[in-house]
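Dear colleagues,

As part of the handover before I leave the project, I'm documenting each prediction I ran so the next person doesn't have to rerun anything. This entry is a single chain, and its sequence is reproduced below.
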Amino acid sequence: MISRLRIILMSCVLMLVVLPSSSFAIQGVAGTFFQPTNDMKTWDEAKWETLFDTYHRLGICEIIVQWVVYEDATDNSGNPTYEYDMSVIEKVLCYAEQYGMYVTVGGVFLNTFWKQIQADPEVLKVHLMRIRRGTTKSIETIAPQLQCSPAFAGWYISQEIDDRTWLGETHMGILCTFLKDLYSDLNALVPNQPLSVSAFSNGWASPEKLGLFWRTVADDVGVGRVLFQDGVGVRKLAVEEVPIYLKGLHEQMMGSCCTVQPVVEIFTQLEGDTFKAEPAPLKRIREQLRQELPYAPDGVMLFSVAEYMSPVGGEKAEALLHQVLAGK
């Protein structure tokens, strides 16, 4: 099930090591996450060209769409409301095809997720059922395009899985059932595509325990790739702690059909009640790469070029891009 994605990723790394335009490319950057927003629906072609030209110059081969729908509103009954406007996703696919890149597509993300995972298990099941139904309904609208797109490379689960909430037997069972059911729905729409899931650590579980958890989930569900977010940008882990967890994940995954790929956070979260961030210093990003690349046979993913390392992200993001391309 994962062979196509593995071949894609290895091809990306092989191409990256010969690209002269970026020191990042030489060090094995395979791709980036992409977070669709409503503002992007108004982007003109010049802005899309700028973003994808940036991807190209950095040697990006794969784009992981974080979500196709981000819900932040409810109706009078308290149920989530969705806007099934796939125009941004269609643009990403179109430009990826033009630039010879691959796209892994996420689903629906409900902004109450972080609150609901602390709720009673039965309430959590209802929340995950809403995510499953919303994701399936949204993907139905673009399934015909995905079926014929040479850029489409697989599915991404938009819900990020931490190292504390899901470790118990009950919650692990709920998670595995959700992943298997949603994967079955997606496979019915576009068959035989690999499944990727994001993991991160709050430093709660030991690297060995976290690795065993993901080996169990991967074997049960058929997960093809675990994307391990390094957590450096949000200060969950220190740079030097990340390889300890990557080592634990890799050791537990030996002999399985699931790969582990690091996700390098290229931002620094700012203080405040709401999430705000700015591009990280290049020196820190280089150290993240140095620590994580030994555990990245398929290269690393960056989170995220559009916001923090491109002209569309603002002056600081463009400045970081120029530093990278200049090899400073």
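The domain at 3-325 is CATH 3.20.20.80 (TIM Barrel). Residues 183 and 195 are 7 Å apart (CA to CA).

All the best with the project,
I.
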